[in-house]
Structure formats: structure tokens, C-alpha cells
Design a protein that fits this description.
40% helix, globular, 6 strands, Rossmann fold, alpha/beta, 6-stranded parallel beta sheet
């Protein structure tokens, strides 16, 4: 009898409102070198923003396009699931909501959610998938108070939810192309992320 091939872990990367830019592609390559099968779907059809105004333009019709974007991400989860045994999702800002939805839709496949600058609501059908959320201390877009409330409620329900706060940082602190990038905070966030992913996806 032949031995079963080693199980594999995959990661789906969901980009911020800048689009699938060089930051996302570089992180994907780093994670591949660590042994993960990685997919980073392009939610904006090749368009990439470099300024906040350009990013606002890219995401202006999100509400109307949410179903289409959700379908794109859902198909990416399905395609990755054909290659690996278990999936983790890493999402930045814009991508966080779609990661949250995949945790709800595919609890059998999605084993870990790592979220940069955001978290979903603790609604009745909130995901039971383990969550690690990284928050900037000085964030004009995200409320750490809301994140702490979700963390407290979901932990009380028995879920593995961790919210980490990075002092002195701003939104986009994990993105090297941005002036808000904080090298030390980003490194610490990825140290924690690596341990979190190994815990829930295996080495």
C-alpha cells in the first residue's frame, strides 16, 4: 500500500482597496517560500490604486458589486480547496469583510482568519473559525472599541478570537509601499501570524 501524500496548507490573500499590488504579491511569494500554497485573487480586474482618491474610485461601487466580489472570493476558496487540505485567509482592510464571509460560508475548509485593520460583526451566524486581528492604535477608519467588543463576545461563546493592538501605528502599517508602514509593527504582526497559522493549519 502506498503512503498517503503529506497534507498541505493553503493561504488565500485578499488585498486592500489599493488592489492586488506589489505589496500583496511580495507577501504571497514570502509565504510560498515558507511552504504554503498561496493564491491572491485580483478583485479589481488588474486595476491598482496609488492614492487614496484612486482607491476610493476603485471601491465606489462596492455595495452594488458585493455579490460579484463575494462570488469571486468564494470561487477562489473552492479552487484552492482542490489543492490543499486546509485553508487560512489573510486579508487587509477592504478584503476583511470577504474573509469574514468565507469563514461563515466554509467552516469546513477555512481554518484560520488573519485580519489586518478590521473585523466582522458578531452576528448570529458569525464564523467560528479562529481569528487573529491586527489593529493600528491611531486608525481613522477602524474602531478598536468595536473590535474589543466583538473579541469579548466571541471569546465568551468559546471562539478563538484575538485582537492585537500596535501602539503608535496607523492604518496600512503592514504595507511597505505606504508612508504609514511601520517595519517593527509589521514584523511583530507577522511573527504572531506565523505562530497562529502554524497552530491552526499545521507546519
Amino acid at each position: 500500500m502506498s503512503e498517503r501524500a503529506p497534507s498541505r496548507a493553503g493561504l488565500l490573500l485578499l488585498h486592500a482597496w489599493w488592489g492586488r499590488n506589489a505589496d500583496v504579491l511580495a507577501r504571497a511569494e514570502t509565504l510560498r517560500r515558507e511552504g504554503y500554497t498561496v493564491d491572491a485573487p485580483d478583485l479589481f480586474g488588474g486595476r491598482v490604486a496609488k492614492t487614496i482618491d484612486e482607491a476610493k474610485a476603485l471601491t465606489a461601487g462596492e455595495q452594488e458589486n458585493e455579490a460579484k466580489l463575494t462570488k469571486t472570493v468564494d470561487e477562489a476558496v473552492g479552487a484552492l480547496g482542490q489543492k490543499v487540505d486546509r485553508i487560512g485567509i489573510v486579508a487587509w482592510s477592504f478584503g476583511v469583510w470577504y474573509a469574514w464571509k468565507m469563514g461563515i460560508a466554509h467552516p469546513d475548509k477555512v481554518r484560520a482568519l488573519t485580519l489586518f485593520y478590521g473585523i466582522g460583526p458578531n452576528e448570529p451566524d458569525a464564523p467560528t473559525t479562529p481569528v487573529l486581528a491586527h489593529y493600528a492604535e491611531q486608525d481613522e477608519f477602524e474602531d478598536i472599541g468595536f473590535a474589543r467588543k466583538v473579541e469579548k463576545e466571541m471569546r465568551a461563546a468559546g471562539n478563538d478570537v484575538r485582537v492585537e493592538l500596535y501602539p503608535g501605528t496607523k492604518h496600512w502599517f503592514d504595507e511597505p509601499s505606504r508612508p504609514e508602514f511601520d517595519k517593527n509593527a509589521s514584523a511583530l504582526a507577522w511573527q504572531r501570524t506565523g505562530a497562529f497559522l502554524r497552530e491552526h493549519l499545521g507546519s
